[in-house]
Specification:
The protein is mostly helical. The chain has ten helices and three strands. It has a three-stranded parallel β-sheet with strand order 1-2-3, sandwiched between helices.
Amino acid sequence: MYREGLAAALGRDGRVEVIGTAGSADAATKTSYLPPPDVIVIDPGDEPVGTLRLIARAVPTAQILVVAVRDDVADVVALAEAGAAGFVTRDEPIESFVAAVVGVARGDVHCSPRVAGALVRRVTALAHGAGGTTAGPRLTGRESQVADLLDQGLTNKQIAQALCIELATVKNHVHSVLSKLDAQRRSEVPARLRAVARI
């Protein structure tokens, strides 16, 4: 109902054509649209960065608008670093959502003033070599857990059982960890982790 409601709101705007909806990131990536969408709207769910990265890899030309996000600086900064083009918080009206889709399609960035300030501060910190991060890749908490379990030689199924998450979610995290560590195979993860630790 929520998904179809957003689609209906967009469909009433003459500037937007809704070409499809999906109930999950996995379902969305298995559907081919020609031409591909200019904007993809996602509700990040429990694994926001992993979901965004999965969608971005599947449709690299699309701008990604994240809806129903908390107005939380850390969450939004992580999503921005993962490639989000805009954010609609949970308390924004439907008109703001439609305007965000149109704006993101033409290259604008949509976010609340508080989030905009946080993103500017993040860019400034990076420009000055600050921000509390190391020179190595920045894994999320969940990605670090998955990386540690990969280091122990666990399979995806074993990782899913250990962390009590879905197998598909584990696969998303593994892809993200490999990408961030610039590793081609999971067997390379232990050495990459040790290299990062020495930075």
